[in-house]
Design goal:
Number of domains: 2
CATH class of the largest domain: Alpha Beta
Structural class: alpha+beta
Number of strands: 11
CATH superfamily of the largest domain: Impact, N-terminal domain
Number of helices: 5
Distance between the termini: 26 Å
Order of helices and strands: EEEHEEHEHEEHEEHE
CATH topology of the largest domain: Ribosomal Protein S5, domain 2
């Protein structure tokens, strides 16, 4: 399954036997960013019975993931949330389900169903886009190669994020990792071997 990432953060509420479950998602790309966001959720819902969570992010081309039941029965909340994220192929997402207890115990099996269901509903409403593994480069070369290189970067699915060209071409550009060899050929041909490509990651 190809990875996908969320277009936006979303929130959905479900009720079950007077308990209220609020699923909340947020695009994130670092563990520190997730912790900061989760801290905000905890402040907003300081009277909640449980705030269960999970995240999946890409770090150095590997998926890092974690989850917590936050006081619910072991395996009844964090794991179902995380498993729903895995099934969707979604990455670079933080997810929390806030529960306000309604007075009736639901049992582990029912909790697993609800936490998974809330997660799936939020994912559907958030919308997903294909995830692209970007590399950032600094590109320099003769000014005469400006047009060929800028057009070529666009054709490769890349983006020029900073143009410092003056007496010579100078770009900062993001390129999909799987198109790097094409970029090398483009720079070599467009600059007749006078260009330079420097990885900035």
């Amino acid at each position: 399954m190809r990875h996908r990432s969320p277009l936006s953060g979303q929130s959905i509420e479900l009720k079950e036997k007077r308990s209220k479950f609020i699923g909340i998602s947020r695009p994130i790309d670092t563990e520190e960013g997730f912790k900061t966001w989760l801290s905000t959720i905890r402040k907003q819902h300081h009277s909640a019975s449980h705030i269960c969570w999970a995240y999946r992010i890409i770090v150095d081309q590997s998926i890092v993931e974690n989850s917590s039941d936050a006081g619910e029965p072991s395996g009844s909340a964090g794991v179902p949330i995380l498993n729903s994220l895995k099934r969707s192929g979604i990455i670079n997402i933080g997810f929390a389900v806030v529960r306000y207890f309604g007075g009736t115990r639901l049992g582990k099996g029912r909790l697993m169903d609800i936490y998974g269901k809330v997660t799936e509903k939020v994912i559907k409403s958030a919308g997903l886009k294909p995830w692209i593994d970007w590399c950032q480069y600094r590109i320099t070369g003769p000014l005469g190669s400006y047009g060929d290189i800028s057009i070529g970067i666009n054709k490769l699915g890349g983006k020029i994020i900073l143009d410092n060209s003056n007496d010579q071409l100078s770009f900062q550009a993001r390129i999909p990792r799987n198109r790097i060899n094409n970029l090398i050929i483009l720079i070599r041909n467009a600059t007749q071997g006078q260009g330079e490509l420097i990885l900035e990651e």
